Amino acid sequence: MAKLLASIKGIQGYVPDYILTNAELEKMVDTTDDWITTRTGVNERHILKEPGMATSDLGKVMVERLLEKTGTAPEEIELLICCTVTGDMRFPDTASAICYKVGIKNAFSYDINAACSGFLFGLTTASKFIESGTHKKIIVVGVDMMSSIIDYTDRATCIIFGDGGGAVLLEPDDSGNGIIDSVLHVDGAGREFLHMKAGGSLRPPSHETIDRKEHYVYQDGKPVFKAAINGMVDTIQEIIKRNHLTLDDINWLVPHQANIRIINGVAEMLDFPKEKVMINIQKYGNTTSGTIPLCLWEWESKLKKGDNLLLSAFGGGFTWGTSYLKWAY
Ligand code: UT7
User: Fold this and answer.
1) What class has domain 5-176?
2) Among 72, 107, 159, 276, which residue's Cβ finds the most Cβ atoms within 10 Å?
3) Where would I find the beta strands (DSSP E) of 157-251?
């Protein structure tokens, strides 16, 4: 019997219906389809447009479908972690709203705010509850409604981000398949390059913060770009080394989808074959906490039991890291 691991027993992605194309963005800001495609790799992104709908409504659909697909009753779930930077409200958390909307009544829940690395931080945290033997069924949701914090007159950010994400069901596994290791980091010095200036305790909302458009994503793209490639490559190399692997052992690299040039840069620096890199940024843009589960969901039918996966991300904070797992079904 191998060590008890937390393994993914089901994955469910979801994006809202409305598709915001590059052609539509060309009419909204001074940009071109060619610039967006070549500089970011994004062709379109999905946006939640319905009034009164929020991040927890996206999460609700994912979790309901995940429960149905895995034959799990809501009452069986013991913990739900929602990774997001666009919670419905400043407080309370969005995880408890999802539980309420889905009818999960026997769980505790909380949010993790680690920006684009959120899903990795959530997955790693959840796996410890399973490994310790205290919990047997946990859901981790990675979801963001980035359109709620994007300034659609700012061409530097509005072209990148989209709404959506995915949810996984974690259960104990003693066959050697599951989440094996994670290398995770933070560096608060990075927060000056990617943040939302107002709305928190530092700059509570005021007429001034609204006039200055401080309730939107601010990004100084170049330093983030550079740090992202280095952070992902370093943690991939570290995890490969300490688990006595080679890159040839890896069946799939699942990178956060922030920019096609970042993904290609990581693959090139590692000399890792492009065919084994999951890429869907062209369809969804950067959904922040949502990109990695959205990839896993789209590739689910191609994944085989025992496949070695590296999940790697970099985001606001800065936060970054890589998780190594063996696919369990
Ligand atoms: O997911 C969380 C972590 N985030 C990331 O990893 C994002 C990292 N950063 C990036 O992906 C890139 O830096 C961006 C996509 C955000 C920007 O790409 P860039 O190649 O760094 O462009 P830039 O900001 O240096 O701008 C280059 C030029 C500028 O014009 P000048 O100064 O050369 O005349 C911009 O004004 O492109 C201009 N530009 C645009 N032109 C057309 C910026 N945005 C646009 C636009 N359309 N949408």
Assistant:
1) alpha beta
2) 159
3) 163-173, 178-186, 194-196, 217-219
